[in-house]
Request: fold
Amino acid sequence: MVVRSVKREFTFVSFLIFLSLFFVYVYNAALSSEDKIAEHIRTDKISEYKRFFDNYTKYITAQYDVKTQKDLFLLFSDPGKRLLCERSLALFTTKAVKYIYILQKDKQGRFRFLLDASQEDKAHFYQKFDVQNSAYQKIYQTKEPQIFYQKNIQNLYLTYLYPIILDNKVAAIISVDISMQFKQDIAQIMASFKKLFKFLIVLIFLVIVVVTSYIFYYYLSRKKLFHDPLTKTFNRNYLEEISSLLRLENYAIAMLDLDKFKIINDTYGHKSGDYVLSQSAKVIKESLRDGDIVIRFGGEEFLLLLHVRGDAQCAVSICERIRNNIAKTDFIFEEQEIFVRVSIGLNTHPVEAKYLDDAIKIADKQLYIAKKNGRDQVVSSMDQKNDISQNNSERKDISFVKKALLEERVVCYFQPIYDINKKEIIKYEALVRIIDSDGSIVAPFFFLSYIAHTNIHFKLTKEIFKICFQTAKEQGKSISININYSDLINKDIENMIVSNLQDDPLLASQITFEILESDEIDNLDLFTQKIKILHALGCSISIDDFGSGYSNFKTVLDMEADYLKIDGTLVKNIDKDEKSYRVVKNIIQFAKDAKMKTIAEFVHSKEVYEKLLLLDVDFVQGYYICEPKPLLEDDIKINTGT
Amino acid sequence: MKKLFVISLLFTISLFADSKTLMYEIIGTVLDNLSTPKQKIIYSDDKDLLKALSKHYAISQTCQESTFIILQKEQLPKECQSKDIFVLNYNLLRSVPQSIGAFFFQKGRANIVLLQPKLQKHNIKASPELKPYLEEKIW
Reply:
């Protein structure tokens, strides 16, 4: 693509050169046309003399019965006849004709005046006339009129020689010396042409200037159109522009995201956020090679097109280099040191995807995994290759979910949430599943990441809500439904929730919305407003995966949640990891102080369960208690060991 | 060939000189190619010409002390009329019967006329280079 940009610049420069050459051509053509027109006028005027002299020759030869050179000499030897002939010839004199005379070559080859009809500097009959121009000799050979320009005789422009042919020989020459007046006459005629040519040249020059300016402006506009001013990288417009030309087999695609960027913005302000973005982009660019492309994909997300020609390991190395360089860079804004880390998802073989969008989604999925696994890392599709190969048949994309929705193959499994104190199931968490066309059950891991932020995701959410509301209503059980921030602020989903629960307070009281704490919330006010709507309807709110995200305690408190679900990654190691144990203990204490009930998920063993009993957690959930089931069964066997 | 030489010489001079300089150069060339019985002591009523010729010839400020007169328009005293006279006007060639030749511009072109009978009378020999300009009479 860099090559393409260079090609465009080359085309632009070539076009400018072409325009310049065109202008030079037009300019020269105008000048040569000017010369040609002047020559044409000159020839036209001179041809008039030829006609005159043709008639004159005919007149004297007929009038005086002149047949040979000697006859002509004898004619002009007679002063009376000579005077008459001289007067006739003098009729042709104009302002432009300075001298007009007849010459004859004598036996010695010297030219002599036979007659001189000039108004001034008259020569005598048969006076010798020293001529130097070869045209005087040439006319005797060619018997054709000759023209030559005078360069060294003052006030003379050119001389026209007309042969008087008698007995098929040049008997004499009528010589006309044309004065500079003739040139001025032509110049006067040419003046209007010159004005026209000047106008044309100026017009063409202006057109070229306008076209060049337009092209230049267009070039700049394109540059603006394709560049992000803050990070000085390409933007998504550029990606769209190149997508059809991109040869995926030559590239690896990486999605890079600045970790916890929202916290940076919230903590240090937007100016610091901008600073971090621009400096990070600079580090990224410096870590790349000439053939690689950086595109600001969205907020703090960058898409990298790494020109690796199928060398997957090279792409991984580049991503690691970027991650290390960012981590090593000191981001200091207004004397505050800001720690910046990045997560990178890498699709090493984008060519395997059908379209660029699909290839990007695979990179995005790797990024999602990198984020989930604790951030500040590179996750490559190459690492997942075996899994993907194994589960290739299980990978499900948007069309899979879309088809499942159409064919009503979306179902919910329910996992009980068990009250330790009352020793009873208080509610069930709804977990989405899709029944594949072969009847197998597909877990959300295989399709959720593909549909994130798409319209299908919202449709799926609405379908889950529909199933849950119906199940809760029919079976009179309480159900917890996961909802993420983007779902929560979606107007359609909000309308659906309100229309179902507004007039059914009993159903509303059976529903708990579990909001992921790890979701990045870009508009806290809007988020709080939506939570209030759910509270107003009479629903309960649970904070899901608490401890995995970035929310501060104030945000959590502002949500006025009823339940706090402790992140499973903390819970699952509570029996072995003292640090996890202490964190969980403190979370439980914080929840009690905030008047929130605690739920521990991922309870996968007796040891974990017993530890939780010691910590006075309110509710537990996990495979040790009960695995998710397709139906709400009253008589499920709770595996509490009691 | 010689004719061509002189013509070429005149033509070359004419390319690079203004009419005055051209005239001086041509007159100088003509003088070089005329052999007179006595040493040429030149007088001219054209003072600029005289000054130009003084670089190569002996000159005189009066016609009486000269042996060769180049006449532009002046009437000569009687004692000078028998000397070698070269005129700078074709009409003077007619009006000054003793004149041996002339240099003049006819229709802007440099012209030389040397009268063969007068040259013989004054015992002046013209070099072959001047042959194209020799005339038997004034036309």
Summary: The CA atoms of residues 327 and 341 of chain A lie 6 Å apart. The first helix of chain A runs from residue 2 to 63. Chain A has three domains: 2-185, 233-390, 393-620. Residues 233-390 of chain A form a domain with the Alpha-Beta Plaits fold (CATH 3.30.70.270).
